[in-house]
Specification:
With 211 residues, the chain is mostly helical. It has helices at 2-28, 54-72, 78-83, 86-106, 113-121, 136-145, 150-172, 178-197, 201-205; strands spanning 29-31, 43-47, 50-53. The chain is built from nine helices and three strands, in the order H-E-E-E-H-H-H-H-H-H-H-H. The chain starts with a helix and ends in a 6-residue tail after the last helix.
Length: 211
C-alpha cells in the first residue's frame, strides 16, 4: 500500500510541474506587435519581465526545421510546415525555454565559463581527427558558415547546460523518503476517519423511514 502511495506522490509531482508550466505560459505570454518586425532586438513575445527576441524565435524555428527535415526529408514542404503550425511550435518552445531558465536562475543555478568551455571543447563538430579542439580561428569560421554569431552560439550552449542542471535538480527532488510517505499516508487515513466520524449513524437513524 505504501509503495502505491509513493508512486502516486511521484506522479502528482510531475503532473503539477506540467500544469504550472502550461498555466504560466497561458497567462504570462503577451504576443508582441513586433512579431513581424526585423532585426535581432525585435520582440516576438513577452514572458513576465523577460522577452523572447525575434532572433531567439528564429533560432527555435531553424532547430525545428532541421529536426523535421531529418524525419520527413524532402516531404517537408512549406505547406506541411504550415499544417504543422511550425512557427507556433517554435514560439511555444522559445517561451517555455525562457520560463525554465528563469526558474533555474531563481533556484540559484548557473553555468561557469569553465563549464561552458569544457562543453564546447567536447563537441565532436569542433574536434579534429585526433579528438583535439580545432582552434579558435576554425571554430569561428565554422560558426560563420552556419550563419551563427559566436557570442549567441555560446549563450545558447550555456542555456542548454543551465536547463540540464535544472532537470537534474528537479529529478533529485522527486525522491520521497519513507518517513515522508508514511506521514502523508497517515494524514490521509486520519482525514478519512474524521470524515467518517462526522456522519455518525445515530444522528440519522431516527429520520430514516423504511418503506
Amino acid at each position: 500500500m505504501l509503495k502505491v502511495f509513493r508512486d502516486n506522490l511521484k506522479n502528482l509531482t510531475w503532473i503539477l510541474w506540467v500544469i504550472i508550466i502550461l498555466f504560466v505560459v497561458t497567462l504570462a505570454v503577451d504576443f508582441g506587435s513586433s512579431v513581424g518586425g526585423s532585426g535581432a532586438m525585435a520582440t516576438a513575445a513577452t514572458v513576465g519581465d523577460d522577452e523572447v527576441s525575434l532572433a531567439e524565435f528564429q533560432g527555435e524555428f531553424r532547430r525545428l526545421q532541421n529536426l523535421y527535415r531529418q524525419i520527413y526529408g524532402e516531404r517537408l514542404t512549406p505547406e506541411l510546415e504550415k499544417q504543422m503550425q511550425l512557427p507556433m511550435q517554435a514560439l511555444n518552445q522559445a517561451v517555455n525555454r525562457k520560463i525554465l531558465i528563469a526558474e533555474a536562475r531563481r533556484l540559484g543555478l548557473s553555468v561557469s565559463d569553465a563549464e561552458l568551455q569544457e562543453q564546447i571543447l567536447e563537441m565532436p563538430e569542433f574536434q579534429d581527427e585526433q579528438g583535439r579542439f580545432i582552434g579558435e580561428e576554425r571554430y569561428t569560421q565554422m560558426l560563420q558558415r552556419a550563419q551563427l554569431n559566436p557570442a549567441s552560439f555560446e549563450e545558447d550552449v550555456r542555456q542548454g547546460l543551465l536547463l540540464q542542471k535544472l532537470s537534474d535538480a528537479f529529478a533529485a527532488n522527486l525522491y520521497v523518503s519513507n518517513d515522508e510517505v508514511q506521514r502523508a499516508y497517515r494524514e490521509q487515513v486520519e482525514r478519512a476517519k474524521i470524515r467518517y466520524l462526522q456522519l455518525p449513524r445515530a444522528k440519522f437513524a431516527a429520520e430514516v423511514q423504511v418503506q
